[in-house]
Structures are given as C-alpha cells and as structure tokens.
Amino acid sequence: MQTSEQVYTYEFITKEQSGLINQAADCLTQSFIGIDVDGKWVQEPMVGNLNIQYDDFYNFTKEYIEGVVDQGYSIVAKDHNGEVVGVLVGDVNAPEIIGEDVFEGSFSDMNVILHVLEDVDKRFLEDYKKRMGKELEDGEMLHLFMIGITAREARHEAIEKLGVELIHKAKQDGLKAVYGEATNPKSIRIAQKYYGQEKYLDVDGNPIVHKYHDNEDLKEIPESIADGTYLIIREL
Hints:
The protein has 236 residues and is of the alpha+beta class. It has helices spanning 4-7, 18-33, 45-49, 54-68, 110-132, 155-172, 185-195; strands at 9-12, 35-37, 40-42, 74-78, 84-91, 141-149, 177-182, 198-199, 209-211, 228-235.
C-alpha cells in the first residue's frame, strides 16, 4: 500500500494562487455538505441537519481562506493530476464573538452554526482569562478551523500529514497551542490520534461543549452521530 506522501503532494497556499484557493474551497465545501466514501455518506452533522446549500457554503469558505491565507496556515493535498483532495485551513486570530445573526437569505441557517461556535469560543475565552489573567490575543494560538478530505485512498494519512505540517509550523512560529471546535466524535478521535489534541477542560474540570439536544435547531441530530461541539486543544 502506498503512503500518503507517495500518493499525494502537499503545498501551502499563497494569496496569489487563486485557482488553488478555489479548489480548496470546493474540497472543503464538498466535505462539509457531504460526499460518498466507499458507499458511506460522510458529512458534517450540523451542516447535514440544516438547510445549507453548496454555493453559499463555497462562497463563505473561499472568503475565509482568502482572509487568512497570508498567515501561512492553509495547506492542501494534491493528487497526481494536481487536483486538491485534502485541505486544512487555520488562523492565529483570537476568536471574535459577534453575538448576532450575520448571514441572510438562503444562507441564514449558517447563523445556527455561528452561534454554536461562538458559544464554545466565548466560554474558552472566559476560562483563558481566568487562568492567565489576561485576554487571549491574536498570534498566540493556532485555530484549526476547517478540514476537508475528498480523497478516496490514504484518507487518514492525508489528514495526518496536513495537521502535522501546520502544527510543526505553529511550533516553529512560537505559538502556545493549537485548538479547534470538534463537531462530532470522529473529529475528536482524529484530533486525538493524529494531532495530539484533547477535549479542553475548564478551571472546574469540565469540558467546554455545546450540546445539540439543548439547541432547538440541532436537537434532531441523533446522539449516535454527534452529541455536541467540543473545544479541543494541544499545548505546544
């Protein structure tokens, strides 16, 4: 069996590579909206439960990549045809809590996801201030925000390689930690196994989590698929 490095090549995206940014946005969007992998439907639980369309999510993803790509934490896996089959995008911005709906029209359901992420991030920021006596600032931690894999082979190897590259860069850049919001058990297992991340525990020893069964818009998600969005972290 070929390794991920033999099957794919890995490349950090730059601002000037508009074609690569478009491909990365498409790969991420497909992964979140849903793809068939060997007869099994794989998608992000919240996106699958809400009315979110490809075009809207693609535009959101593309704008995010374009907004953070200069920070140097956007990487893709490409197959032998040069097609993007894996993406991991992060940023070093401290979480911004908007606290109100920002998406409209056919993309209005994205507000549900926004508020879930903000709920988790807000509690993380509050706990960080309790621990450190100061606000979390830009440039302190790497936020792994979006990962997508459309590859049909060596999928887990590609996931591992993408994360290892970004975490290595974060270490080199002197960042304190790598964190993210894991929206399902599979994401948590992957983060634990390949990235060394664990569920973040607050000062009282409790995980920071937004439970789906407490959310009117997400309570239909079966707990067998996902029970909530957790803050996960790895100290560097």
